[in-house]
Amino acid sequence: MCPRILLAGLVSLIACASSGCATTSRTAVVAENPLIVPSGDFETVWRASVVAVDQFFDIASEDRAQRKIVTQNKSGATLLEPWEIDSVGFQERLECTLQTIRRFAIITVNPSPTGQGWAVKVVVYKELEDLLQPDRQSIGRAVFNNQFPLNRAREVVGPVQVAPYWISRGQDLKLEQAILAKIRSSLFLP
Q1: Concatenated DSSP letters for 74-135?
Q2: Confidence at residue 25, expressed as pLDDT on a 0 to 100 scale
């Protein structure tokens, strides 16, 4: 067997074993979504939500008027990235290792239905990349390379850029619960 493959397998096994609870634990339901925060101070709840979400994603926009936080897309953490916390559980990390998965979140902070406090709703969407052809195909590429169209002057224009397509995989409930747990702990809720 190739030494590179053995080395990569060994490194992934060590990374998986050393990451501990981050990859092997099951996430129990920590809080209902939306999380009801019995606080009258919107700023405290808003800042706690921003800080908690910022640990998982880069924030694309914060709109206090609409009470909405939207994050940027982030590629899922693989088995070789134990320091990243956006893939919750071993199965999620394995899936992100074998396929290109991205996630983004939308967080809303609205008045609670009871009229006391705020309702923090976290929704994390998960998407799978769908390419028209394999990204790094090697067989036949040297002979039948049609990625470089020629113009009339017989100059190479460059590879055709194909926009990737994304297939919705629904919500990532485990990551939603992890974000809600961070918000809950930062607000010292029981």
Answers
A1: EEPP-TT-TT--SS-SHHHHHHHHHS-EEEEEEEEEEE-TTSSSEEEEEEEEEEEEE-SS-T
A2: 44
Q: What is the CATH number of domain 27-131+164-188?
A: 3.30.530.50
Contact status, residue 20 vs residue 167, Cβ threshold 8 Å: no
Three-class DSSP category at 166: strand
pTM value is: 0.71
pLDDT of residue 21: 46
- The three-class DSSP label of residue 187 is coil
- 82 exposed, middle or buried (CB, 10 Å; 0-12, 13-18, 19+)? buried
Q: Which residue has the tokens 């050393």?
A: 18
Of the pLDDT bands very low, low, confident and very high (cuts 50, 70, 90), residue 72 is very high
C-alpha distances (whole Å) from 17 to each of 7, 13, 69, 75, 128 are 15, 6, 34, 22, 26
Residue extents of the structural domains in the chain: 27-131+164-188
Tokens 């990390």 locate to 93
The pLDDT tens digits of the residues spanning 73-124 come to: 999 999 999 999 889 999 999 999 999 899 999 999 999 988 889 999 999 9
